[in-house]
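User: If you would, consider this record:
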Amino acid sequence: MNADQIKDLMAKSLLYVDFGENPGRDKMLRESVSQDCCIISGRNGSSAFYEDLMIPDDYKFNFSEKEIPAIITKIKGVLDKYSDHISQFSTYKNMVLNEEIAFENKLKEIFVK
């Protein structure tokens, strides 16, 4: 899939689930929240840190076989009552949507005297 196809699919979706390694700030997580997807994530790599994935802890799981029932329950809960969950992602969405402005401001702090 190309970037436009991913964006279009996420714009139609309610939930993005990612138990990958996330070695750094993950583009797919940022794209999903910018398209108003709720997120269920593992606690791998940068996802373990609130500063990198600013979502409530009850949407993050240590993926293991014994956690599967809780993960399924959370998935069903989000899909059944999306409108009750999406507000939990506003902090992360706002951070993602303002990353470019924040980056430009940091550059100005460093280079503009």
About this structure: The mean pLDDT is 93. Residues 19 and 109 are 36 Å apart (CA to CA). The first helix runs from residue 3 to 11. The helical segments are 3-11, 27-34, 68-80, 82-85, 90-97, 99-111.
